[in-house]
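Protocol step 6 of 9: fold each sequence in the batch and record its structure tokens directly after the sequence line. For illustration, a two-sequence batch is reproduced in full.

Sequence one:
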Amino acid sequence: MKQRILTGVLAAAIFLPLVIVGRLPFTLLVYAMGILALFELLRMKGMKLLSAPGIISLLLLGILLCPSQFGGTVDFAITKGEIVFLAVLLLLAYTVLSKNSFSFDEAAFAALAAIYIGFGFYYFIEIRNIGLSYVFFAIGVVWSTDSGAYFIGKALGKRKLWPEISPNKTIEGFWGGIFTAVVFSAVYQAATGFPHSYLFVLLITVLLSIVGQIGDLAESAFKRHYHVKDSGRILPGHGGMLDRFDSFLFVMPVLYFLLVLFQPFGL
């Protein structure tokens, strides 16, 4: 527990100042986190980052992470979606060049890994560009959900939520996580003057809390499938980069979509 707390404090001391600074320093941090997360995910599959499919996946990740202010497209007006398709074609071509020692399943994994991590962290950057208060709101929702789910689940949990995927999670913990996230959001809005109605904040908090827990379960699912306990060891006591940011990879895109969708209504 001491190591876990020390790692958390040191990581926060590096991460939070760069979040506050934003711009290029934060973008470079997100690129580094994305590369580490991709490395961890490919390693679960037994694929090397420094291999032909790994490099294709890495290049795709780099393009998907490119913030909108630096250009959401590349030269000749090629969109990110078209780049994704080009990467898929290259990976499929490699199945031929490797004489099928590199399979369609592995090509699909390499492409999906880059899309999942690339777009997930991309929206982390985009949320920061919208406003610092939204980043701290998302961080608070995720952290309060995790804490509430853990402590309330440990104290009151009896019914398993999804034992085939994560045997320690309970239904009581699931609702406890939502409850603590709602408490956090109410305090956050009262303390910061968050520019939205209490009803809107309540609704998005509940949705983001649920989505964050689904993101956590999704990572648990593929770790269990690949017989891996932690995605990595870069954060002693916490595991790997994916272990710490699995919820954010779901929460940040959903938060961005909600803000864009409901912006015209002035909620």
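Sequence two, same batch, same settings:
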Amino acid sequence: MEAKREIIFDKLVYSCVFEKHRGNEEFIPEHFLGYQLSGETHAFHADGNTIIPENSIVLVRKNQLIRTIKYPSKSGKYQFLSIALDKETLRQYALENKIVVDKKYMGKPKLFFEPDDFLYNYFISLAPYINREKEATPSLSNLKIREAIELLLQCNPDFKQILFDFSEPYKMDLEEFMNQNYMFNVSVASFAKLTGRSLSGFKRDFTKTFETTPKQWLLAKRLDEAYYLIKYKKQKPTDFYLDLGFENLSHFYYTYKQKFGITTTET
């Protein structure tokens, strides 16, 4: 059965699957609060892998790339509910409550935890919207986002250093960033934003750093890694081609032969 991903109202997303499902790469533009109702999520990101177990809550930080694999529970169902904490609502909340952030968050990079009674019941209160028993007006959906902010700050006051940090992404080291994230199959525009650059600035800096275009470098980098996995790790292309950012096997086999002059079986 195909994955069900449904936008319940403006910022609330419900995901449900009944068999193991590999998600696409996603660029996370806004912080979001998620609850793993059943099953578990395996998330792959630049800092490594994170497993989100059943009945846990996760605060996912904005401006990052994530790839997920969804595993149903023993009962055969996977359910994940998330609500986006958009910048406009966070700015207004900070203004109304006179919140000023003067330092970066220095806590755990993996922000998932067991829900307290307040957070647990918060997500339970969203069930009527999932079941379509109740429709959310724009003002009501705004209130639910604000409620999530209140509960997060009540759970951990230091989260304000994450939620209300409105500084623009600074220019990251391009070489280091690309070597950590080349396997994500996202647009060049997403890479530009994540490194704190305009699209034109990203392309200019990229050419200066790597002496080639982003598209050519990404393909070469992924193929070099594929060669290593086949030659030295004895892995099959079917096991890793998606993990390296290739959309389909036929394209991978064609470009591999074109670059190395041999097929994968001849490597």
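Proceed to step 7 once all outputs are recorded. Observation for sequence two: The CA atoms of residues 38 and 54 lie 5 Å apart.
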